[in-house]
TrEMBL record:
The chain crosses the membrane at residues 12-33, 39-58, 151-172, 192-212. Zn(2+) binds at residues 141, 145, 221. Binds 1 zinc ion per subunit. This is Protease HtpX homolog. GO terms for molecular function: metalloendopeptidase activity; zinc ion binding. It is found in: Cell membrane. It comes from Nocardiopsis sinuspersici. The active site is at residue 142. Its main location: membrane. GO terms for cellular component: plasma membrane. GO terms for biological process: proteolysis.
């Protein structure tokens, strides 16, 4: 976050380093497990490296395409660009690209593996619902993700889950296709046995990476709330935006929510119906809304603005 005026967060930095360190151990165990299960070491390295490079360099394009979002110029969205220009000047950071997704789901997200590839995207549903200061607060929240570089960490951290999920499905299909558990003529393990071992190793790796990234995701949202509140000096506007978005989410058709659900870890607020907020905090992408609002109220009191 060199050069940025967003409030630094040592807790977030520590958690990102710890998460990447633990994931590196999971990666190593994952590769070793697949090799021991009978896969060629070169095949494993090729699969892992291929997914890693693709996820890292194409993360912004994948996210924009999946959300149906398009990059917009200052001429196409002058008001939105003006807000981001002002916030980037306040934060003393490079301006990211700007995108708009045509969906009624009120949300925003940041993506990209570095500042040059970063994109701040908002939905048309969000812009229709929020007042100017509220939208500014949400955009400050998303810009802080870019400045803190946690978007990059989340992109890297999420790729192991993609690889593990792919190998789990491939292993199950291969086991069903080959059938039987008999060995080959050399008394080696049957292909189905190897496939099931790959499934087991991949499932364990996916579960561990899932829990690690979820824990980081919850903390980074609190960190972004704090950074945005201090930068704009109006935490109440961020609280108002959060209340509006989560309140209106229950009015969005379930079909629309399910379409964008894979992006919940990157959204400003999770795209879930009210029932979704009762999920265990062990697997939640965001902290409870009450916790986020309480933190913003504390910051308001610190700034002398009242609750």
């Amino acid at each position: 976050m060199a050069g940025s005026k967003f409030r630094p967060d040592r807790g977030l930095t520590t958690r990102m380093v710890m998460t990447m360190g633990l994931l590196a151990l999971v990666y190593a165990a994952f590769i070793a497990g697949l090799v021991l299960a009978g896969l060629s070491v070169w095949l494993v390295l090729l699969i892992v490296a291929g997914f890693a490079l693709f996820s890292y360099f194409a993360s912004d394009r994948i996210a924009m395409f999946s959300m149906g979002a398009k990059e917009v110029t200052p001429q196409q969205a002058p008001d939105l660009h003006a807000v981001i220009d002002r916030l980037c000047a306040m934060a003393d950071m490079p301006k990211p690209r700007v995108g708009i997704a045509d969906t009624d789901v009120p949300n925003a997200f940041a993506t990209g593996h570095n500042e040059k590839s970063a994109v701040i995207c908002v939905t048309t549903g969000l812009m229709r619902r929020l007042e100017g200061p509220e939208l500014e607060a949400v955009l400050a929240h998303e810009l802080s993700h870019v400045a803190h570089r946690d978007v990059m960490v989340m992109t890297i951290a999420g790729f192991l889950g993609i690889v593990a999920g792919f190998l789990t499905q491939a292993g199950l299909r291969f086991a069903l296709f080959t059938g039987g558990m008999r060995g080959n003529n050399n008394n080696g393990p049957a292909p189905a046995v190897i496939a099931l071992l790959v499934v087991l190793v991949s499932a364990v790796a996916w579960a561990l990476s899932f829990l690690l990234t979820r824990a980081l995701s919850r903390y980074r949202e609190l960190s972004a709330d704090r950074a945005a509140a201090y930068l704009t000096g109006r935490p109440s506007m961020l609280g108002s935006a959060l209340t509006k978005i989560t309140g209106d989410m229950v009015r969005i058709p379930t079909r629309d929510l399910r379409q964008v659900e894979p992006f919940n870890a990157f959204f400003f607020a999770p795209a879930l119906s009210r029932k979704g907020f009762s999920f265990s905090q062990l697997i939640a992408t965001h902290p409870p809304v009450q916790q986020r609002l309480a933190q913003l109220s504390d910051i308001s009191r610190q700034l002398g603005q009242g609750g």
